[in-house]
Amino acid sequence: MNYQMIETDDALASLCEAVRACPAIALDTEFVRTRTYYPQLGLIQLFDGANVALIDPLGISDWSPLKAVLRDTGITKFLHAGSEDLEVFLNAFGELPEPLIDTQILAAFCGRPLSWGFASMVEEYTGVALDKSESRTDWLARPLSERQCEYAAADVWYLLPIAKKLMIETEAAGWLPAALDECRLMQQRRQEIQAPEEAWRDITNAWQLRTRQLACLQLLADWRLRKARERDMAVNFVVREENLWAVAR
């Protein structure tokens, strides 16, 4: 499939000007999050129904054209299993795509598995078995290989036409309003920032602790989350979960 690399501010501005005339686009992101608390953006994929664009964030400084596209309520944005992508957009740009429709949510309302993977969806609708071997690649390394670019482009190339079919199916089943409500709820949940004092709830087996031990765990988990955000470190690189639990106990 053909795709266009977007590596400069001028190229991004031209792309976004063309996209503003489109009623719907498919979006995806590639990012790295191994040792950091916040996702590190490596690539943005966009398909407007005619052209696939791979936007390289490492060469772009003026993101205002893309932010305008994300805010443009006249353009429907389709993602698949987009919760983490929303976090990437929010962290990188302070913006979320609006309006947003998640094809995994549409599919669930049509009777597919709740966590239906993108590759499975593509295979059902097109018969194409996607190569997902690049899913764990280093998206911050440059130059990107042809194989990486083709993998990334496929994520939006197939998404947009399938999304349109799922919209028709969901509406025919009478579930479209409910599915769109669920998409809005997902977006709202992503905007909610976890309070550090609630971080203990994510600790496995916290329920096994007695009252004083649980109070200790709450303080430790609070401290760990604050440090992770302050230093941009994955929480388990600050202190591993099992060590928090052991100290509290």
TrEMBL record:
Gene3D superfamilies: HRDC domain (1.10.150.80), Ribonuclease H-like superfamily/Ribonuclease H (3.30.420.10)
EC nos: 3.1.13.5
First-level EC class: hydrolase
Name this polypeptide is given: Ribonuclease D
Keywords, sorted A to Z: Cytoplasm, Exonuclease, Hydrolase, Nuclease, tRNA processing
Classification via CDD domains: RNaseD_exo (cd06142)
PANTHER family, A to Z: RIBONUCLEASE D
Organism for this UniProt entry: Salmonella enterica (Salmonella choleraesuis)
GO biological process entries: tRNA processing
Limits of the HRDC domain: 210-249
